[in-house]
Specification:
single chain, 378 residues, alpha+beta, 2 domains, 9-stranded mixed sheet, 11 helices, 11 strands, 39% helix, 26% strand, globular
């Protein structure tokens, strides 16, 4: 992969050990994310279906990090331009830049061809042993070839239609039937993007009612709905703008609740640049390797307050949603409510609790204790 053009917000991982620490950190974090979703289900703030959907996207994200870790396994260990260096957003994200996922999608399309031209894993390991024992040399190039084989094998397996288990730059909407509300059908429509503006994974959940004759996933409207939602899935748009546009463009689809779940940013004194009280907390806590991080999880939610009939032409009327906005900040946020949560290791939380800075008091905390135990802090 050609190096991504760097900005002041981007950095590259040049060293093998640093790259491994980066990916190990995210392996731990994605494991905690799934447990947070389960905790929110226990509290009744997510339904079982919503928790399962969100957990599915987190699992896909973990698989993507695993694939990238194979790709960059030999960073700094081989001469020349290969294997390249992971580029990540070190300022407001901590995650890989979106271009990494775009290149990965292209690699997935060619994974089978790459694998066909590579020796098998068994053959590569045999060659490594002969190089170490017989030639008394480190088989660095063979190790690089094996890392690339593991990368393409992961892509080949997890990108198949029957598995489709990687987090791509865009994951098109899917619809789950929830039940019936009178003469209308209820669906949970969910989709995800890796937002290029902020370099963060973002999940969307929309509960809607369908008054059309044919159920949404089996109707001709479905392709239009998918295209419309993907085009509007931009962090720069408020939820109110997205929901009102959808409500206006589809007269027989009625959005009742829209949520945007932003999985990040990840802050780490070792990898990212942050300002404000969190920067001091991460620096002074001096977390051990693997425990030097805090991940923010934001949930924006927009609810329909009521439905009104409005004129559509001279002789007809159509139902339109009136969305509920708080009187003070509603116009600014475009959401009924915005909740921010923070997942962080116990050592970091102890420093945070001692200082209790005003800017972080309203965050809901989930503390990772010994053995990975998750402790919700109200």
């Amino acid at each position: 992969m050609p190096d991504t053009p760097l900005t002041d917000d981007h950095a590259q991982l040049y060293d093998n050990l640093v790259a491994r620490r980066y990916f190990d950190k995210f392996e731990r974090i994605t494991g905690h994310l799934a447990r947070v979703a389960a905790e929110l289900e226990t509290e009744g703030r997510l339904t079982r279906l919503e928790s399962r959907v969100l957990g599915h996207y987190v699992t896909r994200l973990a698989a993507t990090f695993r694939a990238l870790s194979y790709k960059y396994l030999m960073t700094g260990r081989t001469e020349g331009p290969l294997p390249g260096k992971l580029t990540f957003d070190r300022h407001e994200s901590g995650f890989p830049v979106a271009q990494e996922l775009m290149v990965m999608a292209n690699d997935a399309q060619q994974a089978t061809r790459h694998l066909a031209g590579m020796p098998s894993e068994t053959e590569l390991k045999d060659r490594m042993i002969r190089a170490i024992v017989g030639d008394l040399e480190l088989p660095t190039r063979l190790q690089f070839t094996l890392s690339q084989r593991l990368y393409y094998e992961t892509l080949a397996i997890l990108s198949q239609p029957e598995t489709d288990a990687l987090f791509w730059a865009r994951i098109d909407p899917d619809a789950q039937w929830l039940g019936d509300a009178g003469e209308r059908r209820q669906f949970l429509v969910h989709w995800a993007v890796y937002d290029t503006q902020v370099n963060l994974p973002v999940v969307y959940l929309m509960e809607l009612e369908d008054s059309g004759q044919t159920p949404l996933p089996r109707s001709s409207r479905w392709a239009q709905v998918q295209a419309h939602l993907m085009a509007q899935s931009v962090m720069g748009l408020k939820l109110l703008t997205i929901a009102q546009g959808f409500d206006k463009d589809f007269d027989d689809l009625h959005p009742k609740r829209l949520r945007r779940v932003i999985l990040g940013p990840m802050h780490s004194n070792s990898f990212t640049l942050q300002s404000g009280p969190l920067a001091d907390i991460l620096r002074d806590a001096r977390g051990k390797p693997g425990e030097d991080w805090a991940l923010v999880w934001t949930v924006e939610e927009l609810n329909s307050d009521r439905e009104e009939m409005v004129k559509d032409g001279w002789f007809s009327s159509v139902p339109r949603q009136v969305f509920k906005l708080p009187p003070v900040m509603g116009a600014d946020t475009g959401a009924t409510r915005v909740e921010q949560m923070m997942i962080l290791p116990e050592m970091i939380y102890q420093v945070l609790a001692e200082r209790n800075p005003p800017g972080l008091r309203e965050y809901r905390k989930f503390v990772v204790g010994a053995g990975g135990r998750l402790m919700p802090i109200r």
